[in-house]
């Protein structure tokens, strides 16, 4: 029986893998969505879910534990003051992972990792008086919409 095989090695040494996951989670907190390969996204998702549980606790000890993973103080503040309260009503499953297909260069499977409850971008578009919708609102286009929108760079 093989013990201690919970984490994927991702073809990296332990310190490189730790730095990779920390950087992915920091990018996720900063941009609220990241586009990366599926194995990396799955590992980042595990760490992000753990950090979001800490954000819901919102104690000094939880902030210090989160600061061990996310070294940028402004990102820790955003995690606890902005993202945590948005997810307060949920018992779990704070992130979502979409499969986006294969990357053209090396055919690696790519995914989009994002928070379940995202902040609505404030738009400059005019609002109609009756319906309350912007003039250029269109129905949701699914995954093709995700590919067209600007996202964090692929790592």
Secondary structure layout:
Layout: H1 14-31, E1 33-37, H2 38-57, H3 60-69, H4 73-86, E2 95-102, E3 109-115, H5 143-148
Antiparallel strand pairs: 1-3, 2-3
Under the CATH scheme, the architecture is: Alpha-Beta Complex
Proportion of residues in extended strands: 5-15%
Structure classification:
alpha+beta
Rg (C-alpha, Å): 18 Å
* Helix segment tally: 5
- Quaternary class: single chain
Q: Return the domain count.
A: 1
Q: What is the count of β-strands?
A: 3
pLDDT < 50 runs, ≥5 residues: none
CATH class identity:
Alpha Beta
The geometry reads as globular
Instruction: Please give the share of residues in helix.
Output: 40-55%
Major sheet: arrangement of strands: 1-3-2
CATH topology, which one? 50s Ribosomal Protein L17, Chain: A
Task: Report the sheet with the most strands, covering strand number, pairing sense and barrel closure.
Answer: 3 strands, antiparallel
**Average predicted local confidence, pLDDT:** 86
Cα end-to-end separation:
34 Å
Secondary-structure element series? HEHHHEEH
CATH superfamily: Ribosomal protein L17
Structure description:
- The protein has a three-stranded antiparallel β-sheet with strand order 1-3-2.
- Helix content is 44%, strand content 13%.
- It has a single domain, classed as Alpha-Beta Complex (50s Ribosomal Protein L17, Chain: A).
- With 155 residues, the protein is an alpha+beta fold.
- Helix 1 packs across helix 2, helix 2 packs antiparallel against helix 3 and helix 2 crosses helix 4.
- 22% of the residues are buried.
- A hairpin with a 6-residue loop joins strand 2 and strand 3.
- The chain is globular.
């Amino acid at each position: 029986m093989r013990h201690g095989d919970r984490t994927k090695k991702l073809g990296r040494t332990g310190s490189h893998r730790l730095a990779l996951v920390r950087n992915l989670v920091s990018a996720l907190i900063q941009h609220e969505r990241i586009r990366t390969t599926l194995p990396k996204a799955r590992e980042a998702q595990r760490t992000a879910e753990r950090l979001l549980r800490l954000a819901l606790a919102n104690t000094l000890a939880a902030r210090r534990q989160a600061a061990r993973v996310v070294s940028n103080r402004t990102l820790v503040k955003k995690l606890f003051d902005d993202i945590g309260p948005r997810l307060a009503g949920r018992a779990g499953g704070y992130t979502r992972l979409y499969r986006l297909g294969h990357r053209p260069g090396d055919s690696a499977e790519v995914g989009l990792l994002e928070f379940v409850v995202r902040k609505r971008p404030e738009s400059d578009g005019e609002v109609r008086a009756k319906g309350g919708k912007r003039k250029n609102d269109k129905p949701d286009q699914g995954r093709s919409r995700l590919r067209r929108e600007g996202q964090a760079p692929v790592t």
